[in-house]
Protein: YbaB/EbfC family DNA-binding protein
Organism: Amycolatopsis eburnea
Amino acid sequence: MSGPRRDLRVLQREAGELDARLAAARHTARSADQLVTAVVTGQAKLVDLRIDDRALYGAHAQKLGLSIVEAVRNARNTAKAVSLPELNALFGKQPPPPPAGAAPGPPRPAPAPEPVRRPAEPDDQGSFEEFDFLTDEDPRSGGGRW
């Protein structure tokens, strides 16, 4: 019975060729603020990351981490969208149907959520400057703290 073995060898060879193509492929994407660029392989491995100088010296340098993650995620999503049909074809699977109302093509990344700022809550304990932490006395009550 050489039939199934031959099919397995062919599948292994084709999988090796696809793996080599995916390793050689490059997919580039940027963050929404256009300050970070990531490059990944078709296997979604990060191979390059470029950060614009404006990101380091701008008013919002604390958001740099979010931009890095966003750029890498966008590049990996692109790599996945491009490689998935090839992987499905190799293993004889049909791709899942797109969600109802979805546009064809690679998925668009969701915009990064804006941080939520909450107003400061009033402090009902007062200032700690009034407390003497070396004694058990509470200056507000004139007696022991506990």
